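Input (structure):
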C-alpha cells in the first residue's frame, strides 16, 4: 500500500519519512535534564565535568559560571539547557587559548556508522544554541585513531534560540574500536587562538593537526562579561540529514536517562552507611554498596563526607563495575559511617 503525499511537509514530518537507525539516542542527556553533580558552579576556570548537566564537559576561558538552566527554545519540549555565563572576560586570545564544549562516546555504541568499511555512514548532529555572539562556529569530531573532521555553522541572531544541523562525512578506513573505551569526541568550539585556526579546516577525515581544528572560527565567546551561551536538544543521527529531513529529537523518560548517565557517574548523599563489625580481633568493620547500575569501567571512588568516630583507615576497596566495599579498623565502641560519596568512570 502506498500513500500519496502532496503539498509542503515540515521538519518533523520529514523526519518521520526518514526514520532513525537507532532505538535509543546516541547522545546521552542531550536534553540536559540530568544533573547529578549539582545545578550550578561559579568560579570555573579549568576543564572538567562541573556542577551542570551530566556527560557534558567544558574547557573555559576567563572565569565562568556554568549551570543547568530552564531557558529553552519555545515549544520544543525541552525543560533544560546547559548555560555558560562569562564572569571574567578573556578579551585577547593567546595563540594557545581554546574553549570547547564536549561530550565523549564509547566506541561500541557507534558501530552502526560502519566507519572503516565500504558501507560507512555520515554523522549528522543537530542541536539548539542561543549565544550572545553571532558569527561562524566550528564543530569537530575526533575518533580513537586521532583522526578528525570539522564543519562550520553560523549563529545568525544574538540571544536567540536557533536550531543547527551539521552533517559530517564518514570514511571507509580507520574503524572505531567496538569496546567500552573512548571512540568519539564531539567538540563545539567557542574560542580558539592561532594555534588552532591558522591552517586549513579538516572538512574530510585526516590525522589531527592542531592548526586545522578550528579554522574559520571568528567568535570569542569569552570577550565580554555580558556573554552567555546556552545549548540543548543535542542529537546524533546515522546518515546524511539536513534541517528538512532530520528526525525529531528522541526524548527519554527521566529514569532511563538517569540510568544511562549513571554508567559514567553516580553520587550518593543525604543518607549514611554504617559499617558492620566483621572481625573482633582488630575490630575490622566493612559494608558493601551495590551500584545503581553497572558502570562503564571500574570507577574512581571519592568519599566526600564521613565520620570515622575513632575508627582508622576508613576508605573504600574491592571496587568493581557493580559494587564496592567500605572498611576500617577501630575499637569496640567505634561507630564509623559514610555520609556521601561519588563513583566516576567517565571516558
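Output (sequence):
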Amino acid at each position: 500500500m502506498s500513500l500519496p503525499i502532496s503539498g509542503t511537509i515540515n521538519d518533523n514530518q520529514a523526519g518521520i519519512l526518514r526514520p532513525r537507525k537507532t532505538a535509543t539516542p546516541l547522545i546521552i542527556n542531550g536534553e540536559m535534564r540530568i544533573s547529578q553533580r549539582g545545578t550550578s558552579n561559579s568560579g570555573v576556570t579549568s576543564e572538567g565535568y562541573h556542577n551542570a548537566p551530566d556527560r557534558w564537559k567544558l574547557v573555559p576561558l576567563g572565569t565562568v559560571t556554568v549551570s543547568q538552566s530552564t531557558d529553552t527554545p519555545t515549544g520544543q519540549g525541552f525543560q533544560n539547557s546547559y548555560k555558560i555565563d562569562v564572569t571574567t572576560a578573556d578579551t585577547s586570545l593567546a595563540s594557545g587559548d581554546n574553549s570547547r564544549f564536549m561530550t565523549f562516546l564509547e566506541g561500541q555504541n557507534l558501530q552502526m556508522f560502519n566507519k572503516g568499511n565500504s558501507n560507512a555512514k555520515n554523522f549528522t548532529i543537530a542541536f539548539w544554541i542561543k549565544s550572545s555572539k553571532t558569527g561562524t562556529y566550528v564543530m569537530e569530531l575526533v575518533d580513537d585513531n586521532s583522526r578528525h573532521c570539522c564543519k562550520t555553522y553560523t549563529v545568525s541572531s544574538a540571544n536567540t534560540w536557533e536550531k543547527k544541523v551539521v552533517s559530517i562525512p564518514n570514511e571507509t578506513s580507520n574503524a572505531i574500536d567496538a569496546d567500552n573505551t573512548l571512540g568519539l569526541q564531539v567538540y563545539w568550539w567557542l574560542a580558539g587562538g592561532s594555534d588552532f585556526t591558522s591552517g586549513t579546516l579538516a572538512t574530510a577525515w585526516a590525522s589531527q593537526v592542531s592548526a586545522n581544528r578550528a579554522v574559520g572560527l571568528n567568535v570569542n565567546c569569552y570577550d565580554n562579561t555580558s556573554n552567555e551561551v546556552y545549548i540543548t536538544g543535542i542529537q546524533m543521527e546515522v546518515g546524511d540529514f539536513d534541517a528538512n529531513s532530520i528526525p525529531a529529537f528522541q526524548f527519554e523518560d527521566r529514569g532511563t536517562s538517569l540510568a544511562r548517565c549513571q554508567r559514567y557517574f553516580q553520587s550518593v548523599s543525604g543518607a549514611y552507611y554504617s559499617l558492620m563489625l566483621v572481625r573482633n580481633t582488630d575490630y575490622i568493620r566493612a559494608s558493601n554498596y551495590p551500584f545503581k547500575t553497572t558502570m562503564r569501567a571500574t570507577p574512581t571512588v571519592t568519599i566526600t563526607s564521613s565520620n570515622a568516630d575513632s575508627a582508622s583507615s576508613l576508605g573504600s576497596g574491592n571496587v568493581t563495575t557493580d559494587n564496592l566495599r567500605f572498611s576500617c579498623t577501630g575499637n569496640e565502641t567505634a561507630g564509623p559511617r559514610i555520609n556521601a560519596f561519588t563513583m566516576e568512570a567517565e571516558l
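Notes: The first strand starts at residue 40 and ends at 44. The chain has three helices and 20 strands.
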